[in-house]
Design brief:
Blueprint: H1 2-12, H2 19-35, H3 38-44, H4 50-78, H5 85-114, H6 129-133, H7 142-164, H8 170-197, H9 214-217
């Protein structure tokens, strides 16, 4: 109970002891602000060939899929959280992350349209059973829901790294990478939450967020 109260205090009421979290949030906001420049960059890429535009639109649509999935997952998980202090703290963090994903979604959809393509639409639901089967989260407790969110954010960061590199327009690569860094910040924020709860882990467990380091970032149930 003492750990739960500590967790709630640090996430529901800012404190001087959590200044590192404040610095991290500032970095996240910067990443989102950079992402908002994607539309202007896409407009400036009008000289690109039709083939390059088609390629870039397809890549950004893959990224848009992950944003739709994240928005749905956070909304779905929110209904499963308890009304305890820990549940409320996890919800507050989830809503912050979800807000970023909504910004990413709107920005990416706008860019895809500007490239002459149709943005992929959101599904009514997404299958997260593979994460649950491998013990990378669940929806049976507040802590496991946070672990599930961590696995999703880690995979989103990895996907951005892999897919954005395939873009043909250099400016889009740079701008798209800013969203990828935001996904990494989300994963870091969730790990910081566990650290505050008293779990003995490193907030940033590896120098990179990649397929090779994925096992270092996710937390098993």
């Amino acid at each position: 109970m003492e750990r739960e109260n500590t967790f709630a205090k640090r996430f529901l009421r800012p404190s001087k002891t959590f200044s590192r979290r404040g610095i991290m949030v500032a970095g996240t906001v910067t990443g989102v602000a950079s992402a908002l420049g994607l539309t202007a960059i896409a407009d400036g890429a009008s000289a690109a060939s039709r083939e390059d535009k088609r390629n870039d639109a397809a890549i950004l649509n893959k990224a848009l899929f992950f944003e739709h999935q994240a928005i749905w997952a956070y909304g779905f998980a929110a209904t499963k959280l308890s009304d305890t202090d820990v549940g409320k703290a996890v919800l507050a963090l989830a809503l912050r992350n979800q807000a970023d994903h909504k910004t990413h979604r709107d920005t990416l959809a706008s860019v895809v349209k500007s490239l002459g393509a149709t943005p992929v639409t959101a599904k009514s639901s997404y299958d997260l059973s593979s994460y649950i089967k491998t013990g990378e989260g669940n929806i049976d407790s507040d802590v496991n829901i946070a672990k599930l969110a961590l696995a999703l954010e880690t995979d989103a960061a990895i996907a951005y790294t892999r897919e954005i590199a395939k873009l043909k327009t250099p400016a889009l690569i740079t701008a798209g990478a800013s969203i990828g860094s935001d996904e990494s910040a989300h994963a870091t924020a969730i790990r910081a939450a566990f650290k505050s709860l008293g779990v003995d882990i490193e907030i940033v467990p590896a120098s990179f967020v990649s397929a090779d380091t994925r096992k270092d970032w996710v937390l098993k149930v």
